[in-house]
Amino acid sequence: MSFLLRAFLHVTRKKSKSALLFAVLFIIATLALTGISIGNATSQAQSNLRASLGGKFTLWPSMDPQNPYVKTEQFFEDGQFCIGCYNTEAVYPEMIESVMKVDGIKYYNAELSWSPDADDFRLCKGSMALPLEEKYKKMVNCIGVSDTEHNEFFTSGTIRLVKGKNLKQTDSYSAIISTDLAEKNGLMLGDKLRFRTAQGDSTSSTASAGRLIELKIVGMFKVQGKCAPKGFQTPYDMTENWIFTDRDSAMEAAYGYTGKYHYCEANFYINDPSKLNEIVKKVKALKLNWVPYEINTYSESYKKAALPLERLGSLIHTLLIIIIIVSACILSLILTMWVRDRIHETGVLLSMGISKVNIIGQFLVEVMLIAVFAFGLAYFFGNTIAQNVGNTLMKQQTVQQEHDKSGGFAISLGTEQKKVGETPVEAEGPLDLDNPASVKNIKVEVTVDDLLELYRLGILIIILSVGISSVTVMRLKPREILSMMS
Asked: Per-residue confidence at 201, pLDDT binned at 50, 70, 90?
C-alpha cells in the first residue's frame, strides 16, 4: 500500500483529529492570507501614490550673491533708493531637452510670471488685513507656462479645467482664466483680454513696461481647493484671479520681445519619488554649465502622504513573521503529540520494511490533504476580514501620523479619498499642496496570486512542522520503537 493511500485512509477514518487539524489550519490560513493581501494592497497603494503625487525637482538661475552670474543694480523707484539682483542666465529650451533625456522623468513644466495692470478689470476680492499701495490693488498674477495640463495646480486637483482646452507649447497669445473671473467680467471663450504691462514693475524689463498685450481666452478653470492662506490674501494672491498664459505673451510682457525662448524656472516631474535623488545625480552629471543654476528637490508631498502606508507595510511584515513562527510552533506541538500517539503504527510500518522517509511522507501528505481544503475555504472568507482589518490598521496609522504632526493631539483631516493613490481634494476649505492629506483607506482584495502565495507559505510551514514533530520518533531505532510498544 502506498503512503498516499495510507494518508488518505487515515484522514478519512480519524474524523475528529482531521476536523481539529482543519480548524487550526483554517485559522492559520486566514491570518496569513489577511496579512499577505493587506501587504500586497499596501504595496499597490504606495505604487499608485508614487505615480499620482510623484516628486519633482526645479531648475532655476541661482540668486546666491556669491554666484558670478548674479548682478546687482541700484535704482530709484517712487523716490526711494532700491537695490535689485538678477542672474544674467535663464533656463533655456536646450537645457530642458537635455534634462528630459534622463530616464525616470515623465514631463516638465516651464514657467515665467508677469504682472500687468488691470485698471478696467474687475478682480475677486481678497482678505486684505493690511493696506496696499494703489498700484498693487489692481495687479494681476499672470503665469506663463509651457503646458497647463502638467502644471502642478492642475495635476493636484486644486484647479480643474471645465471649459475649452489646456495651453500647449504651440499656443500663442492665449489665456485660461477662472470661471469666477469670467462671470465677474462677463467674459466667454474666444473673448479677448487686453492688459498693459506694469510701469516700473520689478517683474518686467524697461523694454516691456507699458506694452499692450492682447490674449484670447481658450479655456476656463474652476477652483476646487484653495492654496492655504498665510496671514492675508490680496487680490493678486487669490487663485480665482490667476491667469495662465502661453510663453509668447509672457516673453513679450516680461522682456519686451519674442524669439529665443527662456524661462524663469522649469519643474521636472518624475515617475518614482523614491528615485528622485538618483535622477538628480544623473542630471547634474550632464555636460552642461551648472554654475549659474541651482536644483531644488521636492518629494515631501509623497513622503507625508505615504508615511501611514509605510508604517502599515512595516507592521504587516512584522505580523507575518510572527504568524509564521507562531503557526509553526502550534502546528509542530499538535503534530508532535499525534506522532507520539502513533508509535504503535510507526513500529508496525517499520517492521514491515517501510522506510522512515516513507512514513514521514505519509504524515506530510495527511496534513497537506487537509490544508488544501482549509486554505481554499480561507480564500472565500479572506476578502471581508482582510478589508476590515486593513482599514482598521490604516486608520490607526493615520491617527498616529496626525498625532505626531500635532504634537500629541489627533486632528481629523476631514477629506474624502477619491481613489487610492490620488491626492485628496477638499470640497470646501484650503488645500495645501505641501501638506497633502494622507491615504486613509486602502482597497484590499484577496486575489488568486495571494492564494498561491498562501499555499507556498503554508507548504513551508507544514514541512517545517512535520519535520520538527517527526524528529523525536524518527531518530529512534526500530528495536527501540518495538520495545516502547510492548
From this structure: very low
